[in-house]
Amino acid sequence: MLIARTRQEITLDLSAGTCVTIGNFDGVHKGHQTLIARVLAKARARGLASVVATFCPHPLQVLVGPHTPPFITVREQKLDLIEAMGVDMTMLLEFTKAMAAMEPEQFVRTYLVDWLNCKELVVGYDWSFGKGRKGNFEVIQALGQQYGFHCERMPPVMIHDAVVSSTRIRDLIKAGEVWEARCLLGRYYAVRGTVIHGHNRGGRLLGFPTANLKLENEVRPHNGVYAVWVNVNGNWSNRLDEPGGTALAGVANIGVNPTFGNTDVSVEVHLMDFDADLYGKEVHIHFVQFIRPEQKFPNLDALVARITDDVALARRILAEPEANCWAPA
């Protein structure tokens, strides 16, 4: 998949035109996947290049600033997931305050017409664009007639009698309801981190060595203990078994380790039946099921006993067919 940030970086032959969808695509969830699948189908039917246009940085980072909420997918993950669907090109449009102030016609003429030679546009049910978000579907339809492209609006994707949305998924993850989020994402919710040195307590004091992770700006699941699959030096694959990656069963803990009186939130994972040095390696934690909330124990013996129970329960959870790391959501 070609990734282009400017018109000059577009090396695909777009003379026949493109089929495009535009959005933030945070999560690349089942609603987004439906949009992209429609783009791929229409592009194949008409002999067009398939294009996903998204924004970098995310508009909220420009318009809201440091108070931007965390994202479901960091940029690399988003691009990997889009590429896995078979898209020809992702256009990373630089979002600026000047872009936010563009009139709808200027946005369409610049990006869809001049840059992408758009012949088909597929948008979500609630998509809008341009200054004051006044570029609604009726506006884009009229502009399509003026500039020679057809526009289709997709209905919302419903799961469990509610619309699939990034906000809904984010709320589920923050509440620790990662199994429920999986249904909306079409995969396990995952975070990426580099293994760093922690407090050196897991193996030495407790008998359960852990890998401590430094995360990016992803949504962090609610503090507690989770059954997880861990991908070591792999990619953001849904299957977890890509070349170079290894799917390992694990137990992750998110929180402040109150038994030890810590105050900083940490993310650490114990890998079952695995004994190798992971310092400096990149790992992906795929959250399968919440086990229990974080709690303070009266002594180390009580903590070790509970961790032993957590590991045993995680083994049982991950052994279930529904939790198989290769099973589709």
TrEMBL record:
Can you tell me where the transmembrane regions are?
A: none
Single Gene Ontology BP term? riboflavin biosynthetic process
Which InterPro entries does this chain map to?
FAD_synthase, Riboflavin_kinase, Riboflavin_kinase_bac, Riboflavin_kinase_bac/euk, Riboflavin_kinase_dom_sf, Rossmann-like_a/b/a_fold
Catalysed reactions listed for this entry: FMN + ATP + H(+) = FAD + diphosphate; riboflavin + ATP = FMN + ADP + H(+)
Q: Which UniProt keywords apply?
A: ATP-binding, FAD, Flavoprotein, FMN, Kinase, Multifunctional enzyme, Nucleotide-binding, Nucleotidyltransferase, Transferase
**GO MF entry, a single one:** FMN adenylyltransferase activity
ATP-binding among the record's keywords?
yes
What is the main EC category here?
transferase
Q: In which pathway does it act?
A: Cofactor biosynthesis; FAD biosynthesis; FAD from FMN: step 1/1; Cofactor biosynthesis; FMN biosynthesis; FMN from riboflavin (ATP route): step 1/1
Locate the Riboflavin kinase domain: which residues? 184-319
Q: What positions belong to coiled-coil segments?
A: none
EC number assigned by the record = 2.7.1.26, 2.7.7.2
Please verify whether the record's keywords include Calcium.
no
The cross-references to Pfam families, in alphabetical order and at most eight, read: FAD_syn, Flavokinase
Q: Which family does it belong to?
A: Belongs to the ribF family.
Summarizing the function annotation, the protein's role is: Catalyzes the phosphorylation of riboflavin to FMN followed by the adenylation of FMN to FAD.
Protein name (database record): Riboflavin biosynthesis protein
